[in-house]
Amino acid sequence: MPGMDGTELCERIKSIRPDVKVYAISGHVDLYDDNKLEKFGFDGIIKKPVSMNALKETIESAVGISGIAKLG
Q1: Burial (CB count within 10 angstroms: exposed 0-12, middle 13-18, buried 19+), residue 53
Q2: Residues of the chain falling short of pLDDT 50
Q3: How far is the C-alpha of 24 from the C-alpha of 21, rounded, in Å?
Q4: Phi/psi of residue 23, each to 5°?
Q5: pTM score
Q6: 26 by DSSP, 3-state: which?
Q7: Which SS3 state, helix, strand or coil, does residue 51 take?
Q8: What are the distances in angstroms from CA 37 to CA 13, 41, 52, 65, 66?
Q9: What pLDDT is recorded for position 40?
Q10: Which residue stretches of 1-72 are H helix?
Q11: Residue 46 neighbours by CB under 8 Å, 6+ apart
Q12: Residue 36's pLDDT is what?
């Protein structure tokens, strides 16, 4: 994203719509801890490469279809 990183995008989304679920997708999950993600407003992180099952569980969790998804 030219001119903006994911954390800034998340903060902007949450400032407009705090109810929207925002997940980071990264191949470098070791760079992020739960406190850092929460500080920026992320609801979770999905580890790359993304498996279809993890993506499905995360989406279901975000929209309240099933229990809490385990990310990564």
Answers
A1: exposed
A2: 67-72
A3: 10
A4: -115, 140
A5: 0.72
A6: strand
A7: coil
A8: 14, 6, 23, 23, 22
A9: 87
A10: 6-16, 34-40, 52-62
A11: 23, 24, 25, 26, 54, 55, 58, 71, 72
A12: 83
Sign for the CA dihedral angle at 50, 31, 71, 58 comes to negative
By the 8 A CB rule, do 45 and 72 touch? yes
**Quick check: 62 and 24 in contact, CB under 8 A?**
no
Tokens standing for residue 12: 């902007």
Pairing, β 23-26 against β 44-47: parallel
Give pLDDT, residue 58.
87
Q: What is the DSSP letter of 65?
A: S
Domains of the chain: 6-62 (3.40.50.2300)
